[in-house]
């Protein structure tokens, strides 16, 4: 039985979502991307295919009815990762739905584009049909000339972000283009997965995430699941039956989406449980009316693709908790699940799209490290702090600023001297790996508290001399040793390993951007017990 298998792929998602520096427009853009297939494609099918002759609720479909019920002219197989697979009985139906989707996006999500590919298949092997269609999609996208929208004319005012003609006015932000106006409309419809309660409200602006005196920092976190494509291939490659293959891909797509959303919710609940006297850790929350603004906000939660923004001082801890809780969960047949996280910590008015790119590059760095262990791919995270200016490519920046002078830095496979990251995140307390994040936490706690804690000025000085090299660092350590200060225990016995790399600089650089809520909660409990 031959039919049409179609793929609809949304293009330029990252730039569309993250080009603004206004949280409401970013979240609204994310909402429009989500709706582009989950709602707008569904609307196009409903408008072009007679009622009762389509199946669009793929998440609750028990089987692939399209194969056996010839009355059904179209059925969505699944939606995820910015694309949708749809079966059509006739090519004309597929083309009409494509045209209708184009019009809907033009009206409701200006500047958001998509690519569609239709192929005739026999319905004998879903894995092969899906692979061939994906290859055809990549070929078509590479051959497509990027579209440019018509700009303004000499008598029109242009939006300062998109440079499109302004069409609307906002009391707070002034004139807006149609694109940004639609994003703000979508923001009003956006329903966060975070539960509303009497104590907390979801932040509406970056300034609501939590501020301190002076310059504030936000954390942009991008998390991406490990080996999903490989796992999907293994799941489907031996499955020749079309109906069973569709059931499997639907099931795993729903399962992954559920796991990642639940994990993010658990992270937020942990932050809420640490709330005390208007603060989470040392972060004073912003209060509006009778509610406190949460210092975290989800932006993208699409399957194993997660992006959220938070107070810069919580970014590393929130990422660590997310990966740790994720590793506690399992997929089908108890198969473990892992992901990698990239964290960019930037000033609150830093260009958001650039911040996201840095977070994404950090995530790729973590994934590269994760793949070094072969088949055992675990959760890793990498981070970068931007204190001033526009950062170039992450690799070039680290090569320029994180190498010790006079040391051989030609072998990039050994990493950068001042960087120990990426760090490994596991759901247990073992420290078998030199890169286990538990080492980071232990070093941080030793610097911060206890009988041998370091004064802040000495930590800053150590951070400075590490950048100068081994000799200067050893001289400084001898000096502070005479005052009773010793280095915290680390995964290596010396300040530098055999490749002149050190784990201490990571901790010192992130000292103001890491709040260990688990440790602070234990200290509060001990103080309460002592006072009792």
From TrEMBL:
Keyword entries, A-Z: Antiviral defense, Nucleotide-binding
Entry superkingdom: Bacteria
GO terms, molecular function: nucleotide binding
GO biological process terms, semicolon-separated: defense response to virus
Every Cas10/Cmr2 second palm domain range: 217-371
Record has Ligase as a keyword: no
Xref: Gene3D superfamilies: 3.30.70.270
InterPro entries according to UniProt: Cas10-Cmr2_palm2 (IPR054767), Rev_trsase/Diguanyl_cyclase (IPR043128)
Pfam families: Cas10-Cmr2_palm2 (PF22335)
The protein's name: Cas10/Cmr2 second palm domain-containing protein
């Amino acid at each position: 039985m031959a039919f049409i298998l179609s793929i609809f792929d949304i293009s330029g998602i990252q730039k569309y979502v993250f080009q603004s520096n206004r949280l409401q427009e970013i979240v609204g853009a994310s909402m429009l991307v989500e709706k582009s297939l989950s709602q707008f494609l569904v609307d196009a099918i409903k408008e072009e295919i007679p009622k009762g002759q389509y199946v669009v609720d793929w998440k609750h479909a028990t089987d692939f009815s399209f194969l056996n019920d010839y009355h059904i002219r179209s059925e969505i197989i699944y939606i995820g990762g910015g694309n949708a697979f749809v079966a059509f009985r006739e090519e004309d139906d597929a083309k009409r739905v494509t045209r209708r989707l184009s019009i809907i996006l033009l009206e409701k999500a200006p500047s958001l584009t998509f690519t569609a590919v239709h192929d005739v298949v026999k319905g004998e092997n879903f894995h092969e049909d899906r692979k061939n269609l994906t290859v055809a999609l990549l070929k078509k996208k590479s051959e497509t000339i990027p579209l440019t929208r018509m700009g303004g004319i000499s008598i029109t005012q242009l939006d300062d972000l998109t440079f499109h003609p302004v069409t609307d006015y906002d009391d707070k932000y002034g004139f807006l283009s149609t694109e940004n106006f639609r994003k703000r409309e979508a923001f009003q419809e956006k329903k966060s997965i975070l539960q509303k309660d009497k104590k907390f409200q979801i932040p509406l602006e970056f300034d609501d995430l939590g501020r301190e005196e002076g310059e504030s920092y936000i954390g942009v976190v991008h998390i991406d699941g490990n080996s999903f494509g490989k796992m999907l291939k293994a799941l489907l490659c031996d499955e020749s039956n079309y109906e069973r293959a569709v059931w499997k891909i639907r099931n795993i797509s729903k399962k992954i989406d559920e796991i990642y959303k639940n994990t993010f919710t658990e992270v937020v609940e942990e932050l809420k449980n640490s709330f005390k006297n208007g603060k989470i850790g040392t972060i004073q929350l912003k209060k509006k009316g009778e509610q406190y603004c949460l210092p975290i906000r989800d932006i993208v939660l699409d399957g194993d693709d997660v992006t959220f923004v938070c107070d810069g001082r919580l970014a590393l801890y929130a990422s660590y908790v997310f990966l740790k809780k994720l590793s506690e969960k399992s997929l089908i047949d108890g198969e473990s699940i892992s992901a990698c996280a990239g964290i960019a910590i930037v000033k609150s008015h830093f260009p958001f799209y650039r911040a996201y790119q840095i977070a994404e590059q950090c995530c790729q760095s973590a994934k590269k490290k994760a793949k070094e262990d072969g088949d055992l791919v675990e959760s890793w995270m990498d981070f970068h702090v931007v204190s001033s200016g526009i950062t170039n490519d992450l690799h070039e920046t680290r090569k320029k600023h994180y190498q010790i002078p006079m040391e051989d830095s030609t072998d990039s496979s050994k990493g950068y001297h001042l960087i120990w990251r990426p760090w490994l995140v596991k759901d247990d307390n073992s420290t078998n790996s030199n890169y286990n994040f538990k080492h980071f936490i232990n070093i941080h706690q030793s610097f911060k508290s206890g009988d041998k804690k370091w004064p802040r000025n000495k930590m800053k000085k150590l951070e400075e001399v590490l950048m100068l090299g081994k000799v200067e660092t050893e001289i400084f350590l001898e000096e502070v040793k005479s005052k009773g200060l010793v280095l915290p225990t680390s995964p290596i016995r010396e300040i530098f390993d055999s490749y002149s790399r050190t784990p201490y600089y990571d901790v010192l650089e992130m000292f103001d951007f890491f709040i260990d809520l688990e440790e602070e909660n234990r200290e509060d409990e001990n103080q309460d017990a002592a006072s009792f």
